[in-house]
Amino acid sequence: MPEPIVEAVDVAKVYQLGKTEVQALRHVDLVVERGEFLSIAGPSGSGKTTLLNLIGGVDVPTAGTVRVDGEDTSRLTERALTRLRLDHIGFIFQTFNLVAVLTVFQNVEFPLLLQGRMTSAERRRRVETLLESVGLAGHARHRPSELSGGQRQRVAVARALVGNPPLVLADEPTANLDSKTGGTIIDLMREMNRRDGTTFIFSTHDPKVMSHASAIVRLEDGRVIGRESAQGAEAR
Amino acid sequence: MSGSSSSRVHQGRILVEIAMRNLVASRVRTTVVGGIVALGVVVVVLGSSLLDSIDAGMTRSIQGSLGGHIQLYNAASRDPLALYGGTMGESVLEPISDFARLKGAVLTVPGVRLVVPMGIDQAMVSMGNVFDVALERLRADVRRRMANGPPAEDPEYEAHKAHLRRMATLLQQELRQAREIADETSGVYKDRKADFDALARAVEGGFWEHFDEDPLASLEFLENRVAPLSMDGGFTFIRYVGTDPEAFQKAFPGAQVVEGAPIPPGQRGVLLGKLYAEEWLKLRAARRLDKIREARDLHGRRIAKDEELQRWVKENTGQTRDILLQLDPVRTREAVRRLQAALGTKESDPARLVSALLDTDDRNFDARYRIFYAELAPLLQLYSVKVGDFITIKAPSRSGYVSSVNVPVYGFVEFRGLERSALAGMMSVLDIHTWRDLYGYLTPERAAEIARLKERAGATMVAREEAEAALFGGGDAPPAPSSAPQVIDENRLLAAGGGKGAREDLFLRRYGQAETDAGVALNAAVILEDPRRIEETMPLLVEAAAKAGVRVKAVTWLEASGIVGQSMKLLRMVLYLAVLIIFAVALVIINNAMVMATLQRVKEIGTMRAIGAQRRFVLSLVLVEVVTTGLVFGGLGAAAGIAIVRVIGWTGGIAATNDTMYFLFSGPALIPRLGAASLATSVAIVFLVSILSALYPALLAMRVTPLEAMQSDDG
Ligand SMILES: Nc1ncnc2c1ncn2[C@@H]1O[C@H](COP(=O)(O)OP(=O)(O)OP(=O)(O)O)[C@@H](O)[C@H]1O
Ligand SMILES: [Mg+2]
């Protein structure tokens, strides 16, 4: 059996808010296998974002270990952690977070430029392929401000996937979209998951969104209170 | 890391792309920041071009007028050499006792083209008064009559006599007024009783009726008893450089004889500074008219609104005596005729006519100015000294006596570029023999000789005058007694007549080059073949002089120019300060703008960091943005600066509107010159300033964590 893409062991995260300590996560154990389409669910403040941040190497745990693609994030330098994010993880944000001054094409190309591994012709082909698969081939020259929310999030999906990372994280990717648009985004993500075997971990409040997941991890008050397979999703 | 160089290239591309797009996206900020940078560069380019051309002009003016390239002076001097005067008066230098020896030594140094001896000093000078002029004319008449026999009709002679009588009358009125003020019983009055009696006689009809009986005796009476009572002409101070006029002319092309002729080689004489002549020797009414005209034309001042101009007009209308005194009856008639015609009046009183002419206002000024110079001036002697006159220079000599020397005026000299500088334009050029007489340098042998003479004279009251005579008689010139300069005692300073025979002999004498060189000087101007070799030549000169037994100090022309050099330094400091302030302001503003921009972009930066941009990347992002702004707008500023410099050049430069500017500009207008150095400096400054101002915002950007990307508030 291959190594799991994510492995969190007895993870805790404590935020210092002035004098009071906020226990955002406590004793969290989580294993995510490659190819999963995992949803993290839980009420507001339960620690979903915190957990995704730790997995994404955007933050490091106060205690415990988080392994991503075999790397212990606590042991990496700032530089190496950034490199890990660049090469192994794609990010989809709740607020889309496109670079406003760049075109759709450039936004998607951005991670490839940071990686610097492809020739410009290779990049062009790759970006065009992705824009096509998210249905925005005709919008390459547009600016984010000229797109709808759903279109922007598709660009974000394309950007997250352009470097072909094994893992994509999405914190409430549909929270700023109406439910229909949100649905198409989840469908898109699910399609990518199926097609390339990319692992997706996303958080959501929305039961309808959750229903697409291959599995749901439930958080409450910083603890994992359960993990269930979403048969509905499996059924598809 | 593999492929890191290509990755860097790609990152660089997107970096510049983002930076550019950011700049375009926030146009207002970019314009403000860029505008300040551009302004700063314009100031640097313009300021330094102006300064460079001021610098070049001053260099040319000073080097070409008095400074040369290097100045040498006695190393034992405590004061520094100050060609244009120090801040604390004339500097006192130890003499170079044998210039010839220094010259010989200096000329052995390679690259030396010329060495010019100099001695700069100030002295009192007295010129003949209007009385002397009138007397001179009458004396010529008398000589003519004695030679050719008196003609039946001699209207000129009569007019000249009448003129002198009128002058005596005016003088008597003047002195009466003075007497009324003074207490009649006071000693002063008693001392002057004889003077009043003499004046009374010169006014009386009897004196003039009998004038022709013994014209020579009558002339002598007027010359010795009456003329000295007139204080016209009086004293002024003169600043001169005693030098070898021939060498001086070769070394200093900037010194131009604007009227008259150069001092003939090897002869005694003086060239008076043109500005000095304007300021001190010009008829005061004419000088005031010039000043009013300049104030009106150059500074846009108006008589109606300017108290100073009103005062000058008032002085001109009130003080017509200077003009009237110059006019004998013939000329007076002519002046009345001309002024009546020009002013369109029937007024026949000359005083009122002149007063009316000079009663100028803004409306009639230009017309009156023309009338004055076209109609009245040709009848007048505008300057109290003219070419061919003798002036008497009186200076305290080194030996402790007051030396007093007569010297012929060959012409007027102007220093190109320094024409209007009160510091430099006042300088007159004097032959070195006369200068040495005034300086009165005592060699030990000469001191002994004077002591012997004193003993022989029995140390009476007259000893001093005799000593002076002996001193001058024994000058550096060969000791032919007839060649001794005229020594004039203090009482006779006002009278420029007398003793003409001896004087003429002396001033026709030609001194050889060896005589001119052998003697004392205070400093020496060295002219090099190549002006760029000043620094390396200075020690060679000192060494060569030392080998010849002359201990000298060498300074550059700039150091020697004293106040002038300092004013250059000051100007440069002012520019640097202005540049510093502008760029300090630019630094603060760019910094603030970029800090704000960074704070606005925290989420975007966090996103870039989250998806894999290194800290270095966001740091570069800010730097590239600021430096690009700096270079682009700096370039625009430089282009604007260059354009302004060009336009100023095309339109004839910046006109000097006052004497200080005229001096700084070394002429009537300043044409700025573009220097590669000033452009390079501005680029360097802009680069430095933009990097400095980007440092803090770049640091802030670097500190943005990828967590910022996750913030769900605000879109
Ligand atoms: N930077 C922080 N500093 C202090 N406390 C924090 C910080 N981030 C999160 N917390 C706290 O940690 C706990 C977990 O927060 P987290 O954002 O992970 O919850 P969440 O499940 O994502 O909630 P939501 O559904 O509202 O997004 C909360 O109590 C929150 O207040
Ligand atoms: Mg959250």
Q: What is the radius of gyration of chain B computed over CA atoms, rounded to a whole number of angstroms? A: 36 Å
What structural category characterises the helix and strand content of chain B? Answer: alpha+beta
The proportion of strand residues of chain A reads 25-35%
Taking pLDDT < 50 over at least 5 consecutive residues as the criterion, the unreliable ranges of chain A are 232-236
Average pLDDT of chain B: 82
The helical percent of chain A reads 25-40%
In what range is the share of β-strand residues of chain B?
5-15%
Largest sheet of chain B: 6 strands, mixed, barrel
Strand order of the largest sheet of chain B: 2-3-8-5-7-6
Overview of the molecule:
The complex is a heterodimer of chains A (about 240) and B (about 725). Chain A is of the alpha/beta class. Chain A has one domain: Rossmann fold. In chain A, the strands form 2 sheets. In chain A, strands 6-7-8-3-9-10 form a 6-stranded mixed sheet, sandwiched between helices. Chain A has a 4-stranded antiparallel sheet with strand order 2-1-4-5. The two termini of chain A are about 25 Å apart. In chain A, about 50% of the residues are buried. With about 725 residues, chain B is of the alpha+beta class. In chain B, about 60% of the residues lie in helices and about 10% in strands. In chain B, the strands form 2 sheets. Chain B has a 6-stranded mixed β-barrel with strand order 2-3-8-5-7-6, surrounded by 5 helices. In chain B, strands 11-12 form a two-stranded antiparallel ribbon. The interface between A and B is large, with 38 and 37 residues. Bound molecules: adenosine-5'-triphosphate and magnesium ion.
